[in-house]
């Protein structure tokens, strides 16, 4: 039995435990944040054992901890390979970097400009000049739709940027960049799951009628949208697989936006939430377990 370490105990952890156990992969939780972790022994030689046996006996990790500072300590304690390691997580978290890589690979993405603070207001004005309103403004490395806003004119755009400037003024803020992106009205929002190079299923994220009537437009599940399993058409499946290949990531959520005349890759997530098995293809967990096992054996 291979032991897989997961640094989340949220939805994905509970959903994957049983199906992976049926395939010879025992899943355990390793707490990586909101705790204390001994970093060095101070000469007593006990740093690696002071936290008990919670780090012992694992063969592989699923995804490197989301907090990279704590992750470095947890990674050292575990001493195992990751399905998605630190470099993979950092790659996917950088929205602008992902879109630049995909664009260079000839894959369709929304028109996007990166702004790196601090800049004069004139830089923002020039950057948005090639867009039509409304535009989307989003932090470059946030997740779950945090901080994403729509600006309907220059004044509202500069107002959003003012708030970002307040955050970026703080010296400890690591990522001081944000994106200006074209807004695709009424786009259908899909999350495709790519496992080991092949699309293993997808969900469509939808807002209910009341939310739409109230003017909401962000389809993040964490903001109240519902994820419904769907069968992607061949073009969308191929696009998701090509995105994972271009980024070199074996386990990846690929967010697609589809309008009546366009299909684009909006973002990727190297820490994708696993939804109910009924929303994926029948061999999803077979592929998942195979990828975990090969990662452990390749070390």
UniProtKB/TrEMBL annotation:
- The keyword Metal-binding is assigned to this record: no
Q: Which residues form the ATP-grasp domain?
A: 99-297
Q: Name one GO cellular component term.
A: cytoplasm
Keyword annotations for this protein, in alphabetical order, are: ATP-binding, Nucleotide-binding
Keyword set includes DNA repair: no
Q: Which Gene Ontology molecular-function terms are recorded? A: ATP binding; ligase activity, forming carbon-nitrogen bonds; metal ion binding
Q: Which residues cross the membrane?
A: none
What name appears for this protein in its UniProt entry? RimK domain protein ATP-grasp
Q: What are the top taxonomic ranks of the organism?
A: Archaea, Methanobacteriati, Methanobacteriota, Stenosarchaea group, Halobacteria
């Amino acid at each position: 039995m291979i032991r897989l370490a997961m640094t989340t105990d949220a939805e994905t952890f509970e959903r994957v435990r049983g199906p992976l156990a049926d395939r010879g992969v025992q899943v355990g939780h390793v707490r990586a944040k909101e705790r204390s972790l001994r970093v060095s022994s101070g000469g007593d030689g006990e740093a690696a054992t002071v936290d008990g046996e919670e780090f012992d006996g694992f063969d592989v990790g699923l995804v490197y901890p989301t907090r990279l500072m704590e992750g470095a300590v947890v990674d050292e304690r575990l001493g195992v390979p990751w399905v998605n390691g630190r470099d993979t997580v950092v790659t996917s978290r950088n929205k602008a970097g992902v879109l630049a890589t995909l664009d260079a690979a000839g894959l369709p993405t929304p028109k996007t400009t990166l702004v790196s603070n601090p800049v004069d207001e004139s830089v923002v004005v020039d950057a948005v000049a090639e867009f039509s309103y409304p535009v989307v403004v989003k932090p470059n490395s946030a997740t779950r739709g945090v901080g994403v806003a729509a600006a309907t004119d220059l004044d509202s755009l500069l107002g959003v940027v003012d708030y970002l400037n307040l955050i970026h003024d703080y010296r400890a803020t690591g990522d001081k960049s944000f994106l200006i992106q074209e807004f695709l009205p009424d786009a259908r929002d899909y999350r495709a799951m790519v496992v080991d190079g092949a699309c293993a299923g997808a969900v469509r994220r939808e807002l209910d009628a009341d939310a739409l009537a109230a003017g909401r437009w962000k389809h993040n599940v964490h903001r109240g949208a519902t994820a419904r399993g769907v069968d992607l058409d061949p073009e969308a499946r191929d696009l998701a697989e090509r995105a994972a290949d271009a980024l070199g990531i074996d386990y990846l959520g690929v967010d697609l936006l589809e309008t009546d005349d366009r299909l684009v890759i909006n973002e990727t997530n190297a820490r994708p939430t696993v939804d109910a098995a009924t929303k994926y293809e029948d061999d999803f967990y077979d592929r998942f377990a195979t990828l975990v096992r090969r990662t452990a054996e390749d070390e």
